């Protein structure tokens, strides 16, 4: 009887801690300054939800919840990989745009130099 009350109390404490972590992570998703911060927070939300499912499985004794948590972990991992690939491709396209802008600025500067040389030669 005392073991059941200890497990029940531990589950309540765990649910409280997970609830606090969930709220803090939701804040990070909303207020995250960059996209990678938000993706990391979403990955953390998946981990917290897996924790909720595991605690509820222990509290109720229904072991099917563990299978659900494992499935959610796999889906969360795949979603994180997909977001990471998106961020990488977005970063590469932004880098290409910056390189193109620098190259066009260099070409414009080179064109100005050539026009100055032509003016000096024509003015002599």
Structural class: mainly alpha
Helical amount: over 70%
Mean pLDDT comes to: 86
Instruction: Report the uncertain regions.
Output: none
Which features does this protein show?
124 residues, rod-shaped, cell membrane, sodium:proton antiporter activity, 0% strand, Helix Hairpins, MrpF/PhaF-like, 94% helix, mainly alpha, transmembrane helix
Please characterize this protein's 3D structure.
InterPro entries: MrpF/PhaF-like. The chain crosses the membrane at residues 6-27, 39-58, 64-88. It is found in: Cell membrane. This is Cation:proton antiporter. With 124 residues, the protein is an all-alpha fold. It has helices at 2-31, 35-60, 64-123. It has a single domain (2-123), classed as Helix Hairpins (Orthogonal Bundle), CATH 1.10.287. The protein is 94% helix and 0% strand. α1 runs antiparallel to α2. 1% of the residues are buried.
In short:
The protein has helices spanning 2-31, 35-60, 64-123. The protein is mainly alpha-helical.
Secondary-structure blueprint:
Blueprint (H helix, E strand, L loop, with lengths): L1 H30 L3 H26 L3 H60 L1
Helix pairs in contact: 1-2, 2-3
């Amino acid at each position: 009887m005392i073991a059941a009350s200890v497990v029940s109390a531990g589950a309540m404490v765990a649910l409280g801690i997970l609830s606090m972590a969930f709220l803090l992570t939701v804040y990070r998703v909303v207020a995250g300054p960059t996209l990678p911060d938000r993706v990391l927070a979403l990955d953390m939300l998946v981990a917290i939800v897996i924790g909720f499912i595991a605690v509820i499985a222990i509290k109720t004794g229904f072991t099917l919840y563990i299978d659900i948590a494992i499935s959610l972990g796999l889906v969360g991992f795949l979603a994180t990989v997909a977001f990471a690939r998106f961020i990488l491709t977005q970063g590469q396209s932004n880098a290409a745009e910056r390189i193109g802008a620098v190259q066009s600025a260099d070409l414009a500067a080179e064109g100005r130099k050539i026009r100055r040389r032509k003016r000096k030669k024509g003015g002599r």
